[in-house]
Amino acid sequence: MSRTLKLNNDKELPIVGLGTYKSGPGEVIKAVKEAIDAGYRHFDCAWFYGNEAEVGKGLKDKIDEGKVNRHDLFITSKLWNNFHEKDKVVPMLKETLDNLKLDYIDLYLIHWPFGFKETASLWPVGEGKSAYSDVDYLETWEGMEECVNLGLTKSIGVSNFNAEQIDRLLKNCKIKPVCNQVEVNPNLNQKKLIEFCKQRDIVVVGYCPLGRSEYAGTPGFPDPTIFDPKVIEMAKKYNKTPAQIVLNYLISLGISVIPKSVTKSRIIENIDVFDFTLDPEDVAYLDSCNKNQRVCPLSMFQDHKYYSFNSEY
Ligand SMILES: NC(=O)C1=CN([C@@H]2O[C@H](COP(=O)(O)OP(=O)(O)OC[C@H]3O[C@@H](n4cnc5c(N)ncnc54)[C@H](OP(=O)(O)O)[C@@H]3O)[C@@H](O)[C@H]2O)C=CC1
Ligand SMILES: O=C1CO[C@H](CO)[C@@H](O)[C@@H]1O
């Protein structure tokens, strides 16, 4: 099984990356270093996560130590929703680069297709429509292209875009998006969107691959498949863990996955997923788990003009 996916600009994306959302102070630096030691080269970051400076410190320590070269790393970050105006994109990426202590990143994404006003809060729940900005993501994309032209990022892409939004972007861009980062786990296997993206030479990166297991039991959140008794049984059959079963299944869909962990044993476990193949009946069971339920529907913003999850995919 290959460990990288080729992007439409010929760059290579390591299939398993480390997620960093909610990786807290003091723990994310440790997680980044343990991940590099375990063989991770792909790190998923975002300005919104508020921890890029600590991620950057972990990366720099490992580069200074001689454990890894900058050019072997694949670092992703994302533009948050309050900064969708074209002229804000380059300054926001420069802020991310300062935090990460890097001269360039490998991939910059529009985090969501919908924008908020810069004066609104970062998570403007309850602030009503007056918090929304109607800046078109096509305008934002021009700022993203500028980031490539200035050498601040090697590639650009989108996150949480639906099929129609992707096609609209493809018709109006100078530089093609290399990826669409969306939620993918057995409860939401995104087969139609993955196929749609594949036909357009766009790689899907799957977030919440483990169903954000810390939310298990929270009303309104789908039960993570890693706690499904059948998946626990399956794990015993392959001498693997339920998380490894789920990650192996997701990789077999042709996507990249970015499980988050700050636990050393899990960090190691989550990248040790390439040495087995699931039997057809096990794949069939995991396929049958698809319920189209999201961990991250962001339905509080569903009245936004550019909200993405009102259509089938
Ligand atoms: N583009 C976007 O809009 C979004 C992007 N993302 C990105 O995707 C990443 C992953 O998604 P995330 O929401 O974090 O959810 P995940 O599905 O990656 O789940 C993370 C949770 O699973 C636990 N966990 C990790 N490994 C294992 C394991 N082997 N066995 C059991 N439990 C495990 C972690 O615990 P612990 O850390 O304590 O080990 C944590 O509680 C994010 O961190 C972020 O980088 C996420 C959401 C939206
Ligand atoms: O990246 C992210 C992490 O999860 C959040 C929701 O809980 C998302 O809003 C955000 O896009």
From TrEMBL:
Stated name of the protein: NADP-dependent oxidoreductase domain-containing protein
| GO terms of molecular function | oxidoreductase activity
Q: Which residues bind substrate?
A: H111
What organism is listed for this UniProt entry?
Exocentrus adspersus
Catalytic residues (UniProt): Y49 (proton donor)
Ranges for domain NADP-dependent oxidoreductase come to 17-290
Site: Lowers pKa of active site Tyr. Where?
K78
The record's annotation in SUPFAM superfamilies points to: NAD(P)-linked oxidoreductase
Q: Cross-referenced InterPro entries, in alphabetical order? A: AKR (IPR020471), AKR2E (IPR044488), Aldo/ket_reductase_CS (IPR018170), NAD(P)_OxRdtase_dom_sf (IPR036812), NADP_OxRdtase_dom (IPR023210)
Under the heading Pfam families, the entry gives:
Aldo_ket_red (PF00248)
